Amino acid sequence: MITITDSAMARIKNMLAEEETPGMFLRVGVNPGGCSGFSYGMGLDDEESAEDVYMEINGLKVVVDKESVRYLNGLEIDFKESGMSGGFTIQNPNAIATCGCGQSFRMKDEEGQPQECD
After folding, report:
1. Around 71, how many Cα atoms within 13 Å sit in the side-chain half-sphere?
2. Which residue in 71, 52, 70 sits closest to 62, CA to CA?
3. Residues 6+ apart with CB under 8 A from 92
4. 23 contacts 32 by C-beta, under 8 angstroms
5. Residues linked to residue 33 through DSSP beta bridges, in sequence order
6. What dihedral angle (degrees, nearest 10) is formed by the CA atoms of 62, 31, 38, 111?
7. Could you identify which of 50, 53, 81, 104 might form a hypothetical disulfide with 36, taking C-beta atoms 3.0 to 4.6 angstroms apart as the criterion?
8. End-to-end Cα, the chain, rounded Å
9. pLDDT at 116
10. HEC readout, the chain
């Protein structure tokens, strides 16, 4: 199960409202790579696949590919304002280590594909 805080939900729903493509939803996933071994992917999408798992969180359609589900159980997505900027943050209880940027993580039993940070 994925949790989305109220501030992140408001930001995502605003982003969806600005889109001109009907049927858009939030897609969350994990890719090999990043400085810790795995990196998060999150964005708006309108294409679905038989390899996807669907959930509804407070009226928001969230889609995760089946391969990523095991990495994301318990994930919390938040949006934090910081001075003149802001951004999404991810807290993952399955990660044993994260990169300083917060976009890459390592699992206990899987290394992923660590890469040098840019």
Report:
1. 26
2. 52
3. 71, 72, 74, 75, 76, 98, 105
4. no
5. none
6. 120
7. 104
8. 32
9. 58
10. CCEECHHHHHHHHHHHHHCCCCCCEEEEEEEECCCCCEEEEEEEECCCCCCEEEEEECCEEEEEEHHHHHHHCCCEEEEEEECCEEEEEEECCCEEEECCCCCEEEECCCCCCCCCCC
Output the pTM of the full model.
0.81
pLDDT digits (tens, 9 = 90+) for 6-42: 999 999 999 999 998 989 999 999 988 767 678 889 9
CB 105, CB 99: distance < 8 Å: yes
Q: Which residues contact 9 (CB under 8 A, 6 or more apart)?
A: 57, 58, 60
Structure token digits, residue 87: 């951004």
Cβ atoms of 88 and 42 closer than 8 Å: yes
Residue 40 carries which side chain, given as an amino acid letter? Answer: Y
